[in-house]
């Protein structure tokens, strides 16, 4: 504890827990079977200050501290504040506190669990798409006697780092509630506003009649087909959308007798090929070089064009429905659960409890406070949290600087981890060595990380495209005969960007790779 506990205790009149002393005997750990997580009193990483530690991963935890006297929330200002440090981050779990209302006679604190009724639940919660600082209150409906759970709308997000943070909720007598993180206001709301809580504390005056039924003859169609409309005599529903272009002619130079692909004349049967095990060997296919210089190869067919006579299926035009009555809704009746109030009738706080399920360990709770003066909360924040936070922030900056000096930031490390996994994708095996060379070059020169990422993605996309579409090239325009002897040079002409260079390297790699084996079973 920093700042001197005796002075703080003089200021605090309701509750203050610093964990300077062992919590055993003052806090009660739940004895329910599902709560296997072990609580420990431990130092915050890098400090001499103690807190209450979540010590194990993937466990449920429950612990409670009963107050000497209940804290009323009906009159005056009440401040709820506590400090949490997510030392190992928080991917999925909670780090909130439940402010427990008085329990029935005979209740044992050892029975504390997720069903124990509370008045307010406040604090961080993250998992999947959930990332919020909860503020949930349970309020008793005076008409029904039932408790309803009300959630603060649009709560602030949880800080993403691993530093100490202070969460503060200030409840004012004018029905205002303010949520602060590290002393900075993040959210202001009004308890009685339907815009701030879901559902609203005050129920609606009327509700749809659950017994009201839509009449059978109620017509909700605003438009209907014109019953007097008739399909025109010249409307042909069977006409196709496209027809053959009879005016099209076969391009000059089209090679009808040439296939689009031919056997690679430079390929030879591997020495270790076994016809009995591998089947009859067939040379791999390559694009027919004759087709590259011609407008096309193979059987020529006339292209299709849009059919001017096509009209599709005929439908009668829509007209206004003379029987339209609008969208039916049940009639409104008085809400039997409706009530009015000038301020919430909160149950008092009789205990504070931490009941969470988390996948991360290292969550450290500290400096739990209930006060009736905002200045007290600010004083504790300044004396206990702020010095620690400043030390942690400086350490974080130093670590980031050291990582940059070593050549890789945390982001870059993650990028290269992903790139190495991409290199292990099976269909990239022929290119794995070259990809890894590029990645290693990027690790030595972190400033070109993005370029490396783009290059690997280009390789990945190129290979995937070839797998999906067979690597066929579009028919090339007719070129002078002098160029026909240089098809490879034409392919590489104009390669200047980094992406083009990578594709060029992949073509060279592919040309030097051993011919693939193909059996009759493959065809």
From TrEMBL:
Region forming the signal peptide: 1-20
Record GO biological process: ERAD pathway; protein folding
A molecular-function term among this protein's GO annotations: calcium ion binding
Tagged with keyword Metal-binding: yes
Membrane topology classification: Single-pass type I membrane protein
Biased composition (Acidic residues): 234-246, 254-265, 272-281
InterPro entries reported in the protein's UniProt record: Calret/calnex (IPR001580), Calret/calnex_CS (IPR018124), Calreticulin/calnexin_P_dom_sf (IPR009033), ConA-like_dom_sf (IPR013320)
Annotated stretches, region: Disordered: 199-299, 477-523
Gene Ontology, cellular component aspect: endoplasmic reticulum membrane
Compartment(s) of residence: Endoplasmic reticulum membrane
Domain of life: Eukaryota
Record-linked SUPFAM superfamilies: Concanavalin A-like lectins/glucanases, P-domain of calnexin/calreticulin
Family stated for the protein in its record: Belongs to the calreticulin family.
UniProt-recorded name of the protein: Calnexin homolog
UniProt lineage: Eukaryota, Viridiplantae, Streptophyta, Embryophyta, Tracheophyta
